[in-house]
Amino acid sequence: MRASIRKDAQVQPLSRKEGPSRETKAKRIAYLFVLPVFVFFLVIVAYPLLSVIWDSFHDKNLLNTGDGSFVGLANYVEVIRSEYFVQAAVNTSIWTILSVAGEYVLGIIAALALAQGIRGRAIFRGIIIIPWVVPVVVAGLTWTWMLTPDYGVLNSWLVKLGLLDEPFYFLGEPDTALLSIIIVNIWRSFPFYTITLLAALQSIPRDIYEAAALDGIGPIGRFFKITLPQLKGVSIVLVMIHIIWTSINFDFIWVMTEGGPVHSSETLPIMIYRFAMQELNIGLASALASLLLAFMIIGFMMYYLYLNRESDHREGM
Amino acid sequence: MILMKKGLRLLMYSVIIASLLVGCSANEKSVSGSEDQIVLDFWTAWGPDSREEEVGLKVIADFEKEHPNIEVNVQVMTFDMLYDNIITSINAGNAPDISWGLGEWFSDLNHADALLNLTPYYEDWEDKDLIYDNVIKALTVNEELKALPNYLGNRALLYNKDILNEAGLEGPPKTWKELIAMGPIIKEKTGKYAFGISGTGVRAPQELIMYLAQNDLQLAVEDGSGKFKNTWNENPEELRRAAEVFQFYKTLLQDGVIDPNGRSWGHQEEDTNFSLGQYAMVINGAWMEDTIEEAGVVDNLGIAPPPENASKATYLEISPYYIFKDTEHPEEAWELIKAMLGEEYQEGANLYKSPRKDIKGEGVWAEGYDGLTEIGAVFPQVSLGKVTNDMTDAVGRVLLLEEDPEKTASWLGEEINKSLEANGQLSENAVRSE
Question: CATH number of A85-265: 2.120.10.30, 3.40.50.280, 3.10.20.580, 1.10.3720.10?
Answer without folding.
Answer: 1.10.3720.10
